[in-house]
Design goal:
Helix content is 16%, strand content 23%. By secondary structure, the protein is α/β, with parallel strands linked by helices. The protein is globular and about 35 Å long. The termini are far apart.
Length: 88
């Protein structure tokens, strides 16, 4: 509901969703033309695709600056040690 209100044309945006899944809001968000879902796999190289998702550490993302228009993190921030790095 918030996404529709704030960005009614969200499907035309580049969206990064951390902790994406095959359920919940992820399948809907994946309709965006520039969608990338990521998960955190500490034993795999950052930026590598693992299964259906890209492996990313929110404290040290491998994406170029300004890669996304919208970032979605649900039930994630309580798991990071340095939230200031994530928000940068």
């Amino acid at each position: 509901m918030v996404l529709l209100e704030m960005r009614p044309n969200w499907r035309g945006h580049r969206i990064h969703e951390s902790s994406a899944a095959k359920r919940g809001i992820s399948p809907k968000l994946s309709q965006a033309i520039g969608y990338v879902g990521s998960q955190y796999y500490p034993d795999k190289p950052w930026g590598e695709t693992v299964g259906d998702f890209r492996n990313e550490n929110l404290e040290a993302l491998t994406f170029p600056d300004d890669e996304f228009d919208i970032t979605v993190t649900l039930d994630v921030m309580e798991h990071v040690y340095n939230p200031d790095k994530v928000f940068q």
